[in-house]
Protein backbone atom coordinates (compact mmCIF):
# COMPACT_ATOMS: atom_id res chain seq x y z
CA UNK A 1 0.00 0.00 0.00
CA UNK A 2 1.33 3.40 -0.98
CA UNK A 3 2.17 6.07 1.55
CA UNK A 4 -0.64 8.33 0.35
CA UNK A 5 -3.20 5.55 0.76
CA UNK A 6 -2.00 4.85 4.33
CA UNK A 7 -2.33 8.54 5.21
CA UNK A 8 -5.81 8.66 3.66
CA UNK A 9 -6.81 5.53 5.61
CA UNK A 10 -5.61 7.02 8.90
CA UNK A 11 -7.47 10.26 8.22
CA UNK A 12 -10.61 8.30 7.40
CA UNK A 13 -10.39 6.28 10.63
CA UNK A 14 -9.90 9.47 12.67
CA UNK A 15 -12.96 11.05 11.05
CA UNK A 16 -15.13 7.98 11.67
CA UNK A 17 -14.01 7.68 15.30
CA UNK A 18 -14.62 11.40 15.84
CA UNK A 19 -18.13 11.12 14.41
CA UNK A 20 -18.89 8.11 16.63
CA UNK A 21 -17.65 9.90 19.75
CA UNK A 22 -19.63 13.01 18.82
CA UNK A 23 -22.81 11.08 18.11
CA UNK A 24 -22.76 8.82 21.14
CA UNK A 25 -21.45 11.57 23.39
CA UNK A 26 -24.53 13.61 22.61
CA UNK A 27 -26.71 10.63 23.45
CA UNK A 28 -24.96 9.70 26.69
CA UNK A 29 -24.35 13.11 28.26
CA UNK A 30 -27.67 14.71 29.28
CA UNK A 31 -28.26 18.39 28.49
CA UNK A 32 -28.66 19.31 32.17
CA UNK A 33 -27.39 18.06 35.54
CA UNK A 34 -29.68 15.53 37.16
CA UNK A 35 -31.25 15.02 40.60
CA UNK A 36 -31.90 11.35 41.32
CA UNK A 37 -34.89 10.11 43.32
CA UNK A 38 -34.43 6.86 45.26
CA UNK A 39 -37.59 5.46 46.85
CA UNK A 40 -37.13 3.29 49.95
CA UNK A 41 -40.29 1.64 51.26
CA UNK A 42 -40.96 -0.98 53.91
CA UNK A 43 -39.25 -2.43 56.99
CA UNK A 44 -35.46 -2.40 57.29
CA UNK A 45 -33.93 -5.89 57.11
CA UNK A 46 -30.49 -7.41 56.76
CA UNK A 47 -31.64 -9.12 53.55
CA UNK A 48 -34.84 -9.37 51.54
CA UNK A 49 -35.27 -12.99 52.62
CA UNK A 50 -35.90 -13.96 49.03
CA UNK A 51 -38.85 -11.58 48.71
CA UNK A 52 -39.85 -11.26 45.05
CA UNK A 53 -40.57 -7.54 44.98
CA UNK A 54 -37.51 -5.23 45.29
CA UNK A 55 -39.42 -2.57 47.24
CA UNK A 56 -40.88 -4.99 49.81
CA UNK A 57 -38.08 -4.23 52.28
CA UNK A 58 -35.19 -1.81 52.68
CA UNK A 59 -31.91 -3.72 52.79
CA UNK A 60 -28.24 -2.66 52.82
CA UNK A 61 -27.74 -4.46 49.50
CA UNK A 62 -30.59 -2.52 47.88
CA UNK A 63 -29.41 0.86 49.18
CA UNK A 64 -25.76 0.19 48.35
CA UNK A 65 -26.57 -0.67 44.75
CA UNK A 66 -28.68 2.44 44.22
CA UNK A 67 -26.22 4.80 45.91
CA UNK A 68 -23.30 3.35 43.94
CA UNK A 69 -25.29 3.91 40.77
CA UNK A 70 -25.86 7.55 41.76
CA UNK A 71 -22.23 7.99 42.81
CA UNK A 72 -20.87 6.60 39.57
CA UNK A 73 -23.04 8.76 37.30
CA UNK A 74 -21.26 12.10 36.85
CA UNK A 75 -24.45 13.74 35.57
CA UNK A 76 -26.20 13.10 38.92
CA UNK A 77 -25.36 16.02 41.18
CA UNK A 78 -27.64 15.26 44.14
CA UNK A 79 -29.91 12.53 45.52
CA UNK A 80 -33.32 12.63 47.18
CA UNK A 81 -34.21 9.63 49.34
CA UNK A 82 -37.98 9.27 49.47
CA UNK A 83 -38.51 7.15 52.59
CA UNK A 84 -41.56 5.41 54.07
CA UNK A 85 -40.50 2.99 56.80
CA UNK A 86 -41.53 1.92 60.31
CA UNK A 87 -37.93 0.87 61.10
CA UNK A 88 -36.50 -2.57 61.55
CA UNK A 89 -33.31 -4.43 62.36
CA UNK A 90 -30.54 -2.61 64.23
CA UNK A 91 -27.42 -3.67 62.34
CA UNK A 92 -29.10 -3.17 58.95
CA UNK A 93 -30.20 0.34 59.98
CA UNK A 94 -26.68 1.15 61.11
CA UNK A 95 -25.13 -0.13 57.88
CA UNK A 96 -27.49 1.93 55.75
CA UNK A 97 -26.98 4.96 57.98
CA UNK A 98 -23.21 4.70 57.45
CA UNK A 99 -23.70 4.59 53.66
CA UNK A 100 -25.73 7.80 53.77
CA UNK A 101 -23.19 9.45 56.05
CA UNK A 102 -20.31 8.60 53.69
CA UNK A 103 -22.12 9.50 50.46
CA UNK A 104 -20.13 12.29 48.81
CA UNK A 105 -22.87 14.07 46.85
CA UNK A 106 -25.63 16.14 48.50
CA UNK A 107 -28.32 13.82 49.84
CA UNK A 108 -31.74 14.94 51.08
CA UNK A 109 -34.39 12.83 52.80
CA UNK A 110 -38.00 13.38 51.79
CA UNK A 111 -40.24 11.79 54.42
CA UNK A 112 -43.50 10.16 53.38
CA UNK A 113 -46.36 9.15 55.67
CA UNK A 114 -44.22 7.38 58.26
CA UNK A 115 -40.48 7.47 58.92
CA UNK A 116 -40.00 6.16 62.42
CA UNK A 117 -37.41 4.38 64.56
CA UNK A 118 -34.91 2.75 62.15
CA UNK A 119 -36.41 4.84 59.34
CA UNK A 120 -35.44 7.95 61.26
CA UNK A 121 -32.05 6.42 62.12
CA UNK A 122 -31.08 6.09 58.45
CA UNK A 123 -32.30 9.64 57.81
CA UNK A 124 -30.26 11.28 60.57
CA UNK A 125 -27.03 11.71 58.57
CA UNK A 126 -28.65 13.19 55.45
CA UNK A 127 -27.64 16.75 54.59
CA UNK A 128 -31.25 17.87 55.00
CA UNK A 129 -34.50 16.25 56.12
CA UNK A 130 -37.82 17.41 54.64
CA UNK A 131 -41.10 16.21 56.15
CA UNK A 132 -44.75 16.93 55.62
CA UNK A 133 -46.51 18.72 58.48
CA UNK A 134 -48.39 15.50 59.20
CA UNK A 135 -45.59 12.98 58.66
CA UNK A 136 -45.28 10.56 61.58
CA UNK A 137 -41.65 10.37 62.66
CA UNK A 138 -39.44 10.01 65.72
CA UNK A 139 -39.82 6.86 67.83
CA UNK A 140 -36.17 7.07 68.83
CA UNK A 141 -35.97 3.87 70.81
CA UNK A 142 -35.45 0.12 70.79
CA UNK A 143 -37.99 -2.66 71.16
CA UNK A 144 -37.49 -6.32 71.95
CA UNK A 145 -40.48 -8.65 71.93
CA UNK A 146 -40.01 -12.01 73.63
CA UNK A 147 -42.52 -14.65 72.59
CA UNK A 148 -43.54 -17.29 75.09
CA UNK A 149 -44.87 -19.96 72.74
CA UNK A 150 -45.34 -22.68 75.36
CA UNK A 151 -49.13 -22.50 75.09
CA UNK A 152 -49.08 -22.80 71.31
CA UNK A 153 -46.60 -25.68 71.40
CA UNK A 154 -48.77 -27.49 73.94
CA UNK A 155 -51.83 -27.01 71.73
CA UNK A 156 -49.94 -28.45 68.77
CA UNK A 157 -48.68 -31.37 70.83
CA UNK A 158 -45.07 -30.30 70.44
CA UNK A 159 -42.62 -30.80 73.26
CA UNK A 160 -39.39 -28.86 72.86
CA UNK A 161 -36.19 -30.02 74.50
CA UNK A 162 -33.08 -27.88 74.35
CA UNK A 163 -29.44 -28.74 75.00
CA UNK A 164 -27.11 -25.75 75.29
CA UNK A 165 -23.44 -25.03 75.64
CA UNK A 166 -23.53 -21.81 77.60
CA UNK A 167 -25.87 -20.89 80.44
CA UNK A 168 -27.93 -18.33 78.50
CA UNK A 169 -27.78 -19.76 74.97
CA UNK A 170 -31.53 -20.48 75.02
CA UNK A 171 -32.55 -17.15 76.54
CA UNK A 172 -34.59 -16.16 73.47
CA UNK A 173 -36.65 -19.37 73.29
CA UNK A 174 -37.64 -19.95 76.92
CA UNK A 175 -39.66 -17.90 79.43
CA UNK A 176 -37.66 -14.97 80.79
CA UNK A 177 -36.18 -15.20 84.26
CA UNK A 178 -35.32 -11.99 86.14
CA UNK A 179 -31.64 -12.53 85.31
CA UNK A 180 -32.30 -12.98 81.61
CA UNK A 181 -34.64 -10.00 81.56
CA UNK A 182 -31.76 -7.95 82.97
CA UNK A 183 -29.40 -9.22 80.25
CA UNK A 184 -31.84 -8.36 77.48
CA UNK A 185 -32.47 -4.94 79.02
CA UNK A 186 -28.73 -4.29 79.03
CA UNK A 187 -28.52 -5.11 75.30
CA UNK A 188 -31.54 -2.93 74.58
CA UNK A 189 -30.13 0.01 76.55
CA UNK A 190 -26.79 -0.22 74.73
CA UNK A 191 -28.50 -0.19 71.33
CA UNK A 192 -30.65 2.73 72.48
CA UNK A 193 -27.56 4.68 73.47
CA UNK A 194 -26.07 4.08 70.01
CA UNK A 195 -29.27 5.45 68.46
CA UNK A 196 -29.11 8.57 70.64
CA UNK A 197 -25.48 9.29 69.73
CA UNK A 198 -26.20 8.82 66.01
CA UNK A 199 -29.07 11.31 66.08
CA UNK A 200 -27.00 13.80 68.11
CA UNK A 201 -24.12 13.57 65.62
CA UNK A 202 -26.24 13.60 62.48
CA UNK A 203 -28.52 16.43 63.59
CA UNK A 204 -25.81 18.38 65.41
CA UNK A 205 -27.80 18.36 68.65
CA UNK A 206 -26.59 18.01 72.24
CA UNK A 207 -26.73 14.41 73.45
CA UNK A 208 -28.64 15.52 76.54
CA UNK A 209 -31.31 17.11 74.33
CA UNK A 210 -31.66 14.01 72.15
CA UNK A 211 -31.83 11.80 75.24
CA UNK A 212 -34.87 13.74 76.40
CA UNK A 213 -36.56 13.08 73.03
CA UNK A 214 -35.51 9.42 72.85
CA UNK A 215 -38.44 7.98 74.76
CA UNK A 216 -39.85 6.18 71.73
CA UNK A 217 -42.42 8.97 71.40
CA UNK A 218 -43.91 9.73 67.99
CA UNK A 219 -43.98 13.25 66.55
CA UNK A 220 -45.77 14.77 63.59
CA UNK A 221 -43.67 16.70 61.12
CA UNK A 222 -44.42 20.14 62.54
CA UNK A 223 -43.41 19.01 66.04
CA UNK A 224 -40.25 17.39 64.64
CA UNK A 225 -39.33 20.68 62.97
CA UNK A 226 -39.66 22.56 66.27
CA UNK A 227 -37.53 19.93 68.01
CA UNK A 228 -34.75 20.05 65.39
CA UNK A 229 -35.36 16.54 64.09
CA UNK A 230 -36.17 17.79 60.57
CA UNK A 231 -35.06 20.90 58.67
CA UNK A 232 -38.07 21.99 56.65
CA UNK A 233 -41.69 21.16 55.91
CA UNK A 234 -42.72 20.15 52.43
CA UNK A 235 -43.07 17.30 50.00
CA UNK A 236 -41.04 15.67 47.29
CA UNK A 237 -40.70 18.78 45.13
CA UNK A 238 -39.38 20.84 48.03
CA UNK A 239 -36.79 18.11 48.68
CA UNK A 240 -35.76 18.17 45.01
CA UNK A 241 -35.35 21.95 45.09
CA UNK A 242 -33.29 21.77 48.28
CA UNK A 243 -31.06 19.01 46.83
CA UNK A 244 -30.44 21.09 43.70
CA UNK A 245 -29.64 24.13 45.84
CA UNK A 246 -27.13 22.13 47.89
CA UNK A 247 -25.53 20.91 44.64
CA UNK A 248 -25.30 24.48 43.34
CA UNK A 249 -27.22 23.83 40.11
CA UNK A 250 -29.76 26.19 38.52
CA UNK A 251 -31.36 23.81 36.01
CA UNK A 252 -31.78 20.08 36.36
CA UNK A 253 -33.59 16.98 35.20
CA UNK A 254 -35.24 14.63 37.73
CA UNK A 255 -34.72 10.89 37.27
CA UNK A 256 -35.84 7.84 39.24
CA UNK A 257 -33.32 5.17 40.23
CA UNK A 258 -34.91 1.77 40.77
CA UNK A 259 -33.63 -1.71 41.62
CA UNK A 260 -33.50 -4.39 38.91
CA UNK A 261 -36.85 -5.87 37.88
CA UNK A 262 -37.25 -9.43 39.23
CA UNK A 263 -37.61 -12.35 36.87
CA UNK A 264 -40.91 -14.19 36.42
CA UNK A 265 -39.43 -17.14 38.33
CA UNK A 266 -38.68 -14.91 41.34
CA UNK A 267 -42.15 -13.40 41.18
CA UNK A 268 -44.03 -16.68 41.22
CA UNK A 269 -41.70 -19.39 42.55
CA UNK A 270 -38.73 -17.67 44.21
CA UNK A 271 -38.13 -17.41 47.94
CA UNK A 272 -40.80 -15.24 49.55
CA UNK A 273 -43.13 -15.38 46.54
CA UNK A 274 -46.86 -15.58 47.16
CA UNK A 275 -47.20 -19.04 45.63
CA UNK A 276 -44.31 -20.38 47.69
CA UNK A 277 -45.70 -18.97 50.93
CA UNK A 278 -49.17 -20.35 50.14
CA UNK A 279 -47.67 -23.80 49.50
CA UNK A 280 -45.78 -23.70 52.81
CA UNK A 281 -48.93 -22.62 54.68
CA UNK A 282 -50.93 -25.42 53.07
CA UNK A 283 -48.27 -27.99 53.95
CA UNK A 284 -47.65 -26.90 57.54
CA UNK A 285 -51.10 -25.75 58.56
CA UNK A 286 -52.23 -22.42 60.01
CA UNK A 287 -50.79 -22.84 63.51
CA UNK A 288 -47.30 -23.90 62.42
CA UNK A 289 -47.27 -21.16 59.78
CA UNK A 290 -48.16 -18.61 62.46
CA UNK A 291 -45.43 -19.94 64.76
CA UNK A 292 -42.90 -19.80 61.90
CA UNK A 293 -43.84 -16.20 61.12
CA UNK A 294 -43.68 -15.08 64.74
CA UNK A 295 -40.29 -16.65 65.39
CA UNK A 296 -38.85 -15.03 62.24
CA UNK A 297 -40.30 -11.61 63.07
CA UNK A 298 -39.63 -11.13 66.78
CA UNK A 299 -36.33 -12.85 67.47
CA UNK A 300 -34.08 -9.78 67.88
CA UNK A 301 -34.15 -6.23 69.26
CA UNK A 302 -35.23 -3.71 66.63
CA UNK A 303 -35.11 0.01 65.93
Automatic annotation (TrEMBL):
<keyword id="KW-1133">Transmembrane helix</keyword>
<keyword id="KW-0378">Hydrolase</keyword>
<dbReference type="InterPro" id="IPR002142">
    <property type="entry name" value="Peptidase_S49"/>
</dbReference>
<protein>
    <submittedName>
        <fullName>Signal peptide peptidase SppA</fullName>
        <ecNumber>3.4.21.-</ecNumber>
    </submittedName>
</protein>
<dbReference type="InterPro" id="IPR004635">
    <property type="entry name" value="Pept_S49_SppA"/>
</dbReference>
<dbReference type="Pfam" id="PF01343">
    <property type="entry name" value="Peptidase_S49"/>
</dbReference>
<dbReference type="GO" id="GO:0008236">
    <property type="term" value="F:serine-type peptidase activity"/>
</dbReference>
<keyword id="KW-0720">Serine protease</keyword>
<feature type="transmembrane region" description="Helical">
    <location>
        <begin position="7"/>
        <end position="25"/>
    </location>
</feature>
<keyword id="KW-0812">Transmembrane</keyword>
<comment type="similarity">
    <text>Belongs to the peptidase S49 family.</text>
</comment>
<keyword id="KW-0645">Protease</keyword>
<dbReference type="InterPro" id="IPR029045">
    <property type="entry name" value="ClpP/crotonase-like_dom_sf"/>
</dbReference>
<dbReference type="GO" id="GO:0006508">
    <property type="term" value="P:proteolysis"/>
</dbReference>
<dbReference type="InterPro" id="IPR047272">
    <property type="entry name" value="S49_SppA_C"/>
</dbReference>
<keyword id="KW-0472">Membrane</keyword>
<feature type="domain" description="Peptidase S49">
    <location>
        <begin position="103"/>
        <end position="249"/>
    </location>
</feature>
